[in-house]
Amino acid sequence: MLFASIGVLTVFAGHAQNPSSSISAVETVPAVNQWLSPGDRLQVRLIAQPGVQASFLNGQPLVELTPAQAQGKFGVYQGTYVVQPGDTLNDRRIEVQVLTPDSVLEVGFSGNTVRFLNHNEPQLAVTRSDLAYLNYGLGEDRLGGAKLGYLDSLVVLHLTGRVGELYRVQLATGQHAWVPQNVVRLLPPGNFVPTSLTGSWSVQGDSLYDYVRVPLSARLPYRTQLLENPTRLVVDVFGATSNTNWITQRTGLQELGAVYYEQPQPDVFRLVLPLRHRQSWGYHLGYQGNTLVVQVSRPPAKLRLRGLLVAVDAGHGGTNVGATGASGAREKDLTLAIAQKLRQELEQAGARVVMTREADISAEISDRVTLLRQPRPALLVSIHVNSAGNTTVQGTSAFYRYVAFRPLAAALYKQMQGTGLAGWGLVGNFNFGLNGPTEYPNALVETAFVSNPADEQRLTNPAFQQQMAQAMTRGLKVFLKQTRAKGPKGWLLKQAALEDK
Ligand SMILES: [Zn+2]
């Protein structure tokens, strides 16, 4: 909305103390601190007495909008300046000059600051932890901005802009992303923008995983996609150019097929890693020194619950109560009760279970993800309780982030409906932290709506909680069975074993 950002604090210099000043607000749009690069647009809005002459920076005109353009308002002025190479501005408030009809000159300043980046001194940053991530854009909601993907620690990023709490990262020519300020550390000036030639790969399997190792000369940012039909993992490494003159494929490979690379543009190196199974079991990506290591998970040898390590996540907890029902049922209590019953059911089926919490404690999402790194589960189910403003909305739903893990969410969803709950929907691309891990198939179950009286009654009923736990256990079994059936006839594992002989 046009005026959403107006009404924020305005700082005046010059005639600031003069209550009769014709200036009532100066803001950049968006009204947050910004860093801009050559070619970026600085947008300024001024609210002042109608009919003045207004300009910003060094004489850039501010144009008075007609009331029709400005939602019926008078005295709204806007101007755009495209930052030019060589422009300098060092975290300054934007100065606006106003000449009133009776020739009084007034000066106002924006509430926030702007920096024009000097590209002769590239601004670099490194990721602070291996839970750092890139966002596609500037969006924000309760799940945070839509994530492009996670990064390892100490990955070097070239920053070319800032909008509020997000830095813009130049990934490659024509490609950028955004990184939250709090997941990176700025580097002092004097560094070069990192680029790298790629070395020759090593492709190898050990007793647990298949690996691709690509030597680089710096920890460059990357993006991964787990694709289907055929199942394959695609990794784009930004700032890398091929000098990979061979790819040695050693013994022990069970999941990787005929791997190869592409160079879709001069500064994007792409690993294409075909997988042998139609159901991918995920991967982990990170650096050892400056060598990029792709660790590919294999489907469990025996696709059944017995012996499998399953992670069960009871949503919320402690100070994070979650949703609350009309009769007072709290999400954090319901999820824990259902999670404990699910654990019981899974253990009865012979699975081993790791819980992200077993009591009413606060646990950050990131801590839960970290907790599940060791030991790494084969599957994860996160349990939640849904809520809507409209109390007639009811039913169960399941969520996944990566399309490769959709079959798990779909199996859980179907079995949950078998309890008599209405089907609310199967939701993909879900930008939730516990749908973030790429290392194992995972899904989130929004069991039912606590905001709906009928659903709330079910949710609080221990017998029905047990039924839901049984349904989820069946869902996992069905997923494993489907995976077994889906695996190309006779399992390609056997074929891989033959090739190795
Ligand atoms: Zn929840």
Automatic annotation (TrEMBL):
Gene3D superfamilies named among the record's database cross-references: 2.60.40.3500, Zn-dependent exopeptidases
SMART domains to which the protein is assigned, alphabetical: Ami_3 (SM00646)
Highest taxon above the source species: Bacteria
Residue ranges of every copy of the MurNAc-LAA domain listed in the record: 369-477
One of the Pfam families matching this protein, by short name: Amidase_3
Enzyme Commission (EC) number: 3.5.1.28
Keywords assigned by UniProt, alphabetized: Hydrolase
InterPro entries in the cross-refs: MurNAc-LAA_cat, N-acetylmuramoyl_amidase_3
Group of enzyme by EC: hydrolase
Reaction catalysis annotation: Hydrolyzes the link between N-acetylmuramoyl residues and L-amino acid residues in certain cell-wall glycopeptides
PANTHER family: N-ACETYLMURAMOYL-L-ALANINE AMIDASE (PTHR30404), N-ACETYLMURAMOYL-L-ALANINE AMIDASE AMIC (PTHR30404:SF0)
Name assigned to this protein: N-acetylmuramoyl-L-alanine amidase
Species whose genome carries this gene: Hymenobacter volaticus
